[in-house]
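Fold this: Kinesin-like protein
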Amino acid sequence: SQMHISMVSLMRFYDWCMVRPLSVEEQKANVQSAVSCNDTKREVTVLNSLFKQADKTFTFDTVFGPKSQQRAIYDHAVAPIVDDVLEGYNCTVFAFGQTGTGKTYTMEGEMMQQVGELPTSAGVMPRAVRHIFDILEAQKADYSMKVTFLELYNEEITDLLASEDQSRFLEDRHKRPTLSLMEDGKGGSVIRGLEEIVVYSPGEIYSLLQHGSTRRRTADTALNMQSSRSHSVFSIYIHVKVTTTGNRELIKCGRLNLVDLAGSESIARSGAKEVRAREAGELNKSLLTLGRVITALVEDSVHVPYRDSKLTRLLRESLGGKAKTCIIATVTPSVHCLEETLVTLDYAYRAKSIRNKPEVNQKVCKSVMLKDLYKKMEKMKQDVKAARENNGIYIPDETFVLEEAEKKIMRDKVEHMELSMEKQSKELEKYRSLYLAEQKHRLNLEGQNKELKVTIETCKREFLDLQEAHSRANMSLKEKDFIISNLLHAENVILERAKVLCGTVETASGDIADLQNKLGRQSKTEVENKGLLFNFRSQLDQSLGLLRNTVVRSICEQRQFLESMTGQMNSYFSAKSESANHLKRRIAKAKDMHTSGVQCMNELVNTLRQRSITDSEQMKLNISSQAIAVDNFLAVMVSEAEQVLTEVLRSTSELKELLAFSAEQQELGLQKSLTSAQAMSKTSIDFFNDISTHASRLMKLMKQSQRGCSSRLAEFEKGFEEAAIREEQAALDKIAGILAGLTARKTTMVSLSIV
């Protein structure tokens, strides 16, 4: 079992990867594995961590582990290619990788001579042959098939299926006649003289494969006991007859190229010497050209170096051309081949970016193909006739003319190359003189370089001194920056404190303005209270004067009534009733005046309670006492008036009953009434005098309270202004002192720095 990494390109390159286990020799030598596979994630990881580097992971379409079989890689990678060949495409499958990684094993595997079941170790070639014949037999198709098998060794092409009689005169099996590679004018290549063998069964192809494989050049190296020293290309040409509508017969053509590339190798590790070393160099050169072609195709370069190697010329159609291509890249998990493994995986990973443009081969009419076959047969007859009629080796005229033309082209090329060599020799002389001049210039530069080195050493020492001085200056600057930052912080703190003090002063000024507004409102309220008291006093004086006049008038009327009572007894009762009614009205009016007075006093009390702050309580007490006195007075007056009314009514009833006795007692009653009225008048006068006294006392108290409030307010305002001025002056003095100290310290620091 070998380790494989396969990659298929259908329109683009798809990747399949299979990893083999370590060989028996590697296991005996305890060689570490540097490659791990993850079938689920379809990743191959190169363990660079063994050399303390980052691992590198490559992602493929499918990854097969070490236990995978040949059948699996064929079914997934090659079987779709074979199906496309039978559909009329040109397809290529080739193995790519380091020597000793199983390329030949993957492509050929174990051969079989008889038709039967393929062994499990059978490679791509026998499985592809069996697959093709199974499909054609299942379709019962009318077909023809021919094969070719060539070898590319040291940039020389030989035919591995050439008959023995053509080379029996050669003693060395490694010296075979070479074939020429020519362009077909369509972007492809044609190999002149390559033998095409018609086959009819898988067994014939197996025999040809085994015969050609035994003739391939191999050698024993330190990396592989049977290392292929050449590239091989096994091609199968298939022609299938297809019947179209109208019973027209067409031929569908397909070609399958199975390429087994020789492995790249490190000459130091493979132990190759002399001839083997030259072989390895040529192999590596052709594989390097293949890598450059892949890189150019991936990078979409304008020039792709197909013509730098015959290998790339053979594979030109498969690399960016019209064919469908499957690359099977093989690597070894051995840690000793880690570098080659990385190169192979990198080429395989980049190759999937190549874009091919597959085209189906044009179907050929059967008659046209038969005509071509007849021409070839005629040409072969002419060759045989020329060989029979003459001694020695003869060829037809057409072939001779063609070869002469080729020789002329070669002579022209040789002349062109000689001219080119002469031109190059002249350029070589020119470059030699330039080289000598450059050497002389280099010696001068070396002398200057020594002088500059001395100068540089001196500059280095000076630079170190300057660097030390610079470090000291930096330390000093850092200290100064630290001090300045602290000073700036202190300045910021002082400014913040000053802002707070300014805010406090502004708040105090606002409070003073609010207090002044409040005092103004209080003065206005006191003026309004004075006006209310004055109005109340005038109204009360008017009411009391009206009451006094009413009482006096009543007394006068009583006197007139007493004087006229004797003569006017009949009108006495009506006058008495009228007087009583009038008295009732006066009493009701007095009650109303009493009620209004009490209401005014209550309103005055409420107003004074709301607007006065410091003197309201005392004023309320005084007004309440006065209101109580007025209430008492009016109550007494009402009660006395009611008593008078009751006595008048009682006297009237007594007069009605005892007219005679009432006349005698009338005078006594009138005298009592007069006395009561006089007493009532005196009481009213005394009450009004008391009210005036209390009112004047209340006004004095209000004036004194206002003067006290004004003086206290003036003292508070004066003290507050003085305190605010003192605090502001103190804050300004502190700020000035701090700023002066900061300025002095900065000046000192600057002077010290200057010194």
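The chain has 14 helices and 18 strands. Residues 1-165+191-364 form a domain with the Kinesin fold (CATH 3.40.850.10).
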